[in-house]
Every structure is written in structure tokens, then in C-alpha cells.
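From the pipeline queue, job 12 of 40. The input is one protein chain; the requested action is below.

Action: predict structure.
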Amino acid sequence: MPPAELPPLTGDMTMSQVLQAYPGAQRALFAKYHIGGCRSCGFQPAETLAQVCERNENIPVAEAVAHIQESHQGDSSLQISPQELAVLLRNQPELVLLDVRTREEHDAVKLPGARLLTQELVQEIFTSGDKTQPIVLYDHTGSRSLDAAAYFIGHGFAETKCLTGGIDAYSSELDPSLPRYRIEIEA
């Protein structure tokens, strides 16, 4: 299945539109410009990318766009599709499969063989894990697991990937026996 065509990224797009098209944009903006990581440097979903750039030291919009797009390409290289994961699980049943969701989500539904990623498990893996073996991380929809994958890669686990679309995509594309769910956020 070919990747979805991304819309052109422009300064007049709202941050909501930017994040919809480029889910890693907030991580990219924070890493380079310290934008969007905390309350003092945050942005509103209705603000345009140009407005965010202007009020953050007048960052050139073209520079921010280029950085978001480059980061998106890097994020794409860290991802594995549900179909690729299914093949990997068949060929490597001992694959380290880590669930970065909450304990409640993990207890409700999980991929076969997955372990809930806890601080203790991170320490165990970092202390005695094989840095050459593949690790696949997943979350609900594929957004948080990118951060976790980057963290593992930063600690030398170069064969780390994250599941594109998370368990939700795996369920809808490969295994409908896994219940799908929505997270309700209280206002």
C-alpha cells in the first residue's frame, strides 16, 4: 500500500492541520526551536504555523517547514506497518514487542506476546538487552510510540521501530478480533 499523499505544508495552515498531516511536527518544533513542549512555549490549535514562527523569535516559516518535513521523513524511517509487523512476528516469534500505553489499555487489549513498557522493564532492557535485536513499540494510534522509539535508538538500540497507526491500525487492518476503542478526554 503506497503512503498517503501529504498536503503541502504552508505557513497559513493551522497547527491543528499541521499536526494532522505531520504528527511529529510538535516534537520537531520542540527539538529545534523549543516550541510546543510546555505551557510557556505552547501553541493553540487554531494558530497558524506563521503566527507560531513569528512569536517565537521570528523564525523563517520556510525554515520551520523544511525542518518539519525533514523530521517527518526521519519519523517514517522508524515505522513498521501492521503487515510488516505480522511478517516479522511470524519469522521471529521471540521479537521484543513493547506496549507503551497505560496499564489499563494493556490489560484491556494487547498484541500477542507484547509486554507493558514499565520503568523497570526499560532498565532491564537497557542493562541486559541485545542492542542488535529488533524491538517494536506500539501505542493506541501510533503517535506516542515514536517518542519511545527515538529514546531507545538514542540508547543504542538501532533496530527499534514503532507500529504505524498503533494497535488500532493492527486491529482494523489485520486482526479484527482485537477490540478497538476510543480514549475519552475530559474537558
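Job complete. The mean pLDDT is 91.
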